[in-house]
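User: Show me an example of a complex going from sequences to structure tokens.

Assistant: Sure. Here are the input components:
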Amino acid sequence: AQSVTQLDSHVSVSEGTPVLLRCNYSSSYSPSLFWYVQHPNKGLQLLLKYTSAATLVKGINGFEAEFKKSETSFHLTKPSAHMSDAAEYFCVVSAPTGGGNKLTFGTGTQLKVEL
Amino acid sequence: DSGVTQTPKHLITATGQRVTLRCSPRSGDLSVYWYQQSLDQGLQFLIQYYNGEERAKGNILERFSAQQFPDLHSELNLSSLELGDSALYFCASSVVGTANTEAFFGQGTRLTVV
């Protein structure tokens, strides 16, 4: 079984300051991990993915995440927040189930960016 | 634009009714997933299809059913609707539907049951 815990339901930062969104995972398999972003009234957009290659993964819009197996973490960071980053972010673990595959979503972190 | 198309975007219907949500995957993608997003449950996996066959099942109610057609589009049928079925329903597609392949999501269908 797999699960994801997003440690903060809300994060507020000032524009131009770093962003850190925390995620811990649990998986019976070697995990594939993703971050998705959801802007208001929009679908889910893939930010980045980890699939057992490099542990530091770069994504779109300046986001990156580091896979740390010893800490079972996959935190999302960005050096400098922009107003357009305000959205809900989901950490996702993907693992085989039955004959197929299942994406398990965290509960989401709402990112607020202030001037 | 993810390339995944869902119709309709919005749907309002009465309790007890039946609705069909449609999803067209990205060109070349063989696998389709359905998810339900509600305020109290978050994003819940419903079902996955691969090349027309059901591959994985999640928390899908017996009143709900889905299928994937030979042209790879998928439909989610929701029947005997209840107020609690009001939610945003997402379809996603991926190339092969394995754990290490990313899924691309549509814009969702917002279902309101009144």
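The lines above are the inputs; the final block is the predicted structure for all two components together. Chain B has a mean pLDDT of 95.
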